[in-house]
Amino acid sequence: MALSRVCWARLAVWGSAVTPGHFVTRRLQLGRSGLAWGAPRYLFPRQLLIRHFWTPKQQTDFLDIYHAFRKQSHPEIISYLEKVIPLISDAGLRWHLTDLCTKIQRGTHPAIHDILALRECFSNHPLGMNQLQALHVKALSRAMLLTSYLPPPLLRHRLKTHTTVIHQLDKALAKLGIGQLTAQEVKSACYLRGLNSTHIGEDRCRTWLGEWLQISCSLKEAELSLLLHNVVLLSTNYLGTRR
């Protein structure tokens, strides 16, 4: 029984590994961002070979590229959070969200209680999943390495689906225990949830994943917008990853 649960959870972690969509691939092909993507012979292994056939160096390089792309949306998402602060009716929630945004902008990694204090704020207007503005939804899609070139209702539905799946995986992983995962499985789970784990030690990755699971398993379905934003909130400044 225990063995089957371990195998199932490992399959779930690997099966949900990041698969960049057409938007990411197209952006890299066109070279519209400021990063140096390298010569065509560098891009071919990433686009034509599945991850299993990447060399260790290619895995690190390609995951860095994908994370650099999704990280570009982080300041935009924080900006959208700041813009809706005046729309929050509760003064305490307004203060908490202002404080959280300030901490992240100053390079501070937020504590678990800083994020969970905002559960109510993300369960209804203006930050509930169904109340997010179109540009906000597009930025969140990019943060999840999903194409943003779809109508907002479809983007919102897909984000909700992806977040729900991650939430379900989190519950299963919490029951199983992080200690049951190998180092590579832990790094893959962290990367899926927004952390660039390629240059972070195993122990630090396990600590971060533990923080994520503590937040995720405290949330109800109506509060999953906070889990979606946690891809940015919890990962941006962890151990100097903001560079």
Automatic annotation (TrEMBL):
Pfam families, alphabetized: LETM1_RBD
Record flagged with keyword Membrane: yes
Keywords from the named record: Membrane, Mitochondrion, Mitochondrion inner membrane, Transmembrane, Transmembrane helix
Main location: mitochondrion
GO molecular function: ribosome binding
GO cellular component: mitochondrial inner membrane
UniProt cross-references to InterPro entries, sorted A to Z: LETM1-like_RBD, LETM1/MDM38-like
Residue ranges of every copy of the Letm1 RBD domain listed in the record: 69-243
Protein name: LETM1 domain containing 1
Gene Ontology annotations of biological process type: intracellular monoatomic cation homeostasis
Membrane topology, from the record: Single-pass membrane protein
Location(s) in or outside the cell: Mitochondrion inner membrane
